[in-house]
Amino acid sequence: MRDKGNRHSVFLPYHNLGVMKWMRKINFYLAIGTLAMIGVACEKPNPNVNLEGQDVLSANEVSETVRPGLLLYVDTLYVPIYSDIYTVIAQSTTPLAATLSIHNTSLRDSLYVDLIDYYNTNGVLVRKYVEGTLLLSPLQTIDYIIERADNAGGTGANFIVGLSAKQENMYPLIQAVMIGTSGQHGFAFTTDAVSIMKH
């Protein structure tokens, strides 16, 4: 006779089945959570946000209002920007990333920025970047990036930047840096600001 005592049941006790269902449910939610975290990690970071999560321009805003009579240096500058340029192929453009860079070159004096307006090729205002006043400490630089995907400006875009200071002898440096690719090659070039209304 076959010894029935050696037989092993293929069925699990009822309470074990409940545990397995519970574990499957936990694994499911863990998988969903992991995918969500991966999705967040893969998001492209905003280049115009600092380490504290603030917009780089807003982080330099000041509440103080400087009386016009105390400002000995006041200047408005035109900065050419190219969000795309024509390539050797007719009627074809290559998108560019552009960085507006405002340098306070003074060793001792602060620089105020009260205007950063972005215009497109047709001279139409695209957006205003400053609502209040920004303060640049001595030797401080502010950079703001127009990403490649932002083609609102076109081939002849520009920034209008308004600057002021309490000292007359100020020599700020305002430039735009454009970066792009053509085939397997990368390229970059700069443009300099031009004063259009100095007081």
How big a fraction of the residues is strand?
A: 35-45%
Question: Helix content range of the residues, please?
Answer: 10-25%
Number of DSSP-assigned strands: 13
Structural class: mainly beta
- H/E series: HEEEEEEEEEEEEE
Present the secondary structure layout:
Elements: H1 14-42, E1 61-62, E2 73-81, E3 84-86, E4 93-95, E5 97-103, E6 111-119, E7 125-128, E8 133-136, E9 141-146, E10 157-165, E11 173-182, E12 185-192, E13 194-198
Would you write up a description of this structure?
With 199 residues, the chain is mainly beta. It has 2 domains: 8-42; 58-198, no CATH class. It has 1 helix and 13 strands. The strands form 3 sheets. Strands 1, 2, 6, 7, 8, 10 and 13 form a 7-stranded antiparallel beta sheet that branches. A hairpin with a 2-residue loop joins strand 11 (173-182) and strand 12. It is globular and about 80 Å long. It starts with 13 loop residues before the first helix and ends with a strand. The model has no long low-confidence stretch (mean pLDDT 83).
Write out key terms for the chains shown.
199 residues, mainly beta
Short recap of the structure:
With 199 residues, this protein is mainly beta.
